[in-house]
Amino acid sequence: MMNAESNSKTGSARTRNIIFKITTAITIIGMLVGGASQFFQLAYQVDVFEQLGYPLYAMSIIGLGKILGGITLSIPRIPALFKISAYAGLFFVTIGAVISHLATGMYGDALSPLIVAGIAVTSCLLNPQLKFALERLKSFPTPSLAK
Question: With contact defined as beta carbons under 8 Å apart, do 124 and 81 qualify?
């Protein structure tokens, strides 16, 4: 017989798993669609890159990275290091986009990549395959600044 405490833990684990699956699906689709639109230099992506002042060849490099990251996150039993790298790459690219939009005065355009970064971080933190790596990171010794 299950008591209320074990039932709530099961429910919370189920909720985390559902949120993980939804945020991961959004992340993968965003990486693949966004990456393809950048890799193939679709007109609206070209306009954004030109407004930000970036060379167009960088768009293809970023797009390819997003496509590879989306594929990596789609493969269920790929080593955790690859998944962490895909999440990190997307995080750095999206935060770079936020900073670029803010620096060029395109404040409204900064919101979209910020939301994408938040969804990807949520997916990463809830990824059961990466739980051991994140737990290990928490126990990583940090240097003391006190002397």
Answer: no
Residues 6 and 9: their CA atoms lie apart, in Å, by 5
Task: Supply the angle between the helices 80-103 and 111-126 in degrees, to the nearest 10.
Answer: 160
Residues 6+ apart with CB under 8 A from 44: 37
The continuous run of DSSP H or E covering 82 comes out as helix 80-103
The answer to whether residues 69 and 90 touch, using CB atoms and an 8 Å cutoff, is: yes
pLDDT band at 132 (very low <50, low <70, confident <90, very high): confident
Condensed to tens digits (0 to 9), the pLDDT of residues 110-119 reads 999 999 999 9
The number of helices, as runs of H, and strands, as runs of E, in the chain is: 6, 0
Q: What pTM was computed for the model?
A: 0.83
Let me know: does 68 contact 108? Beta carbons within 8 Å: no
Q: Which two tokens stand for residue 65?
A: 């990275």
Measured CA to CA in angstroms, residue 48 lies from 86, 101, 124 at distances of 23, 9, 28
Pairwise CA distance, residues 91 & 105, whole Å: 21
